[in-house]
Amino acid sequence: MEQSGVALVRDVRVRNAGSAALGPSVFELQLVPELGDPVRVPVPALPPGEEVSLGLIDLRLPVGHLRSVVEAERAQLRWTLRQEEHAVALGSADVEVLPYNHWPGARAPLGLLVSFATPAHPVVSEVLKDVRRVLEEAVGDGSLSGYQRRSPVHVRAMVLALYQAVQDLGLGYAEAPPSFETHGQKVRLPDQLLRDGMGCCLDLTLLFASALEAMG
Fold first, then answer.
1. How far apart, in whole angstroms, are the C-alpha atoms of residue 105 and residue 115?
2. pTM value?
3. According to the model, what pLDDT value does residue 1 have?
C-alpha cells in the first residue's frame, strides 16, 4: 500500500469541543517504532465548536525497513495536538506492518493485488523462453508480440503456449490458508514458486498475470 500511494491517513479533523477559543497549534503524527520521522502540520485558531480538516497526511515510511519485515509486526500510530510544548490532546491506534510479500486480502483495496504481478522478474523471462519454444513448435512463429499483429488467433496461440509451458514446470498444488480472502496470505513470487515446486491458485494466477503482461 505504501509503494502504491495509498495513504495511511486520508484525513485529520480537529474540533474545538471546549468553551474557549483554541489558539494556533501544531498537529504531530508519527508511526513507531522506527517507522519514519514525525510529521507536523500547523492548525489555525479555532473558536468554540469549530472544526478544521487538515486533509491527507503524507507519512513517508522507510522502504528499507519495510523490505526487512519477514513476519507481521505491530506498530502504533501516535498523534499529539500541541500548543508550544503543551499537549492539548493525544491518542494512538495500532497498525499492522506486513512483510513485502504478504497480500492483505479484503482489508486493503482489492485492486492492489496487481502489485504482486512481476513481469520483469528474471524467472518470468526464463518461463517466456519456454513459451517461445512451444509457440514455435505449434505455429512456426515464436514471437511474443502481444496485440501488435491485431490477430486474435496469434494471441490465443500465445496464451495456449504459456499454459503448456507452465504445465511443463510440473508445479504441484498447495492449499491456500483459511480465510485468505479476508485476511490475505503470503504470496509465492516466481522464484519461490519454482524453488518450492508448488503454489496455490493465487500464486499461479499471479505467475500467469506476470507472464501475460511481459508478453504484451
1. 12
2. 0.81
3. 82
